[in-house]
Task: structure prediction
Amino acid sequence: MNLLITTRGSLLHKKGESFLIKTPEKNTEVPITKVESIWIATAAMLSTDVIKSALEHNIDIVFLDEFGDPMGRVWYPKLGSTTLIRRRQLEVAEDEKGLQLVKEWEVQKTGNQIALLKKLKKTRPGQEIPLEKAISEISAFRDDVLHLSGNINHCRQAILGIEGMASRIYFSAIADILPDEWRFAERSRRPAKDPFNATLNYGYGVLYSIVERACILSGLDPYVGILHTDSYNKKSFVFDFIEGFRIHIDEPVVFLFTKRKVREGHFEPFEGGVGLSKEGKALLMNELNAHFDEEVAYRGKNMKIRNTILAEAHALANQLVRGYD
Result:
């Protein structure tokens, strides 16, 4: 599980083989073996025993900003990867293999979007036609990407443009099926202009942290982008690799709203927009932890969703090395 600390002034201690979280409201013990990451979203204090135990168990401690994005992390530095993976990653970013990888990610992303819209269509009588129209248009955009050829550098802007158009259609369809009080006009990020986007953005921030962790543990360099170009301090490859996994935020967030689990108290004004309150963050994290702990069929065996992301990162790292042998 991912342990999120949202209560200001929380104290984290080690008690036996558990982490003890003390807040003004209650004390909570969580077995160390069940924790994958510790996320700090507010002012909190950690004992050195907590940090040492986290390092020993390869649990990263992540500091999140107000949007849920990782600002920094603490973890064991010797991860056992090879620089050969990073060299292959740099080579791929400049040849036709890079375009092939981007196509695979785009097919995975749009396939997930289409699958969610089809699931929603089954339970939305009277909205079948607009949802089917969105599905058809996203499918056409996916085909446009698949027909591209050549070097990724020659296709980058075309792919980003297609991706942007498909995203607008997808989120417009999502907005139309939400309860009236939660509908939104368009995607908004920093800051979000509405509760749905505030929840989605925080969820994506959580996902960035999970994907970055998977990249580093598998030996992939988070900064060597293929579709997203390199820039100072930008984790471009995380933005690339995350695309196929966004559905693991989209679907839980959509169902939080369509099943009316959210309420006004889960949100608060934030610097010209809307942000999640402490209660909203807790609601979202409970939903995401439950989702990531679900088991799915993966490469012939059952695996928790959270573990499939790391498995995909390892598979890509191995593919990069084998592909050039």
The domain at 2-74 is CATH 3.100.10.20 (Ribosomal Protein L15; Chain: K; domain 2). The radius of gyration is 20 Å. The chain has ten helices and twelve strands.
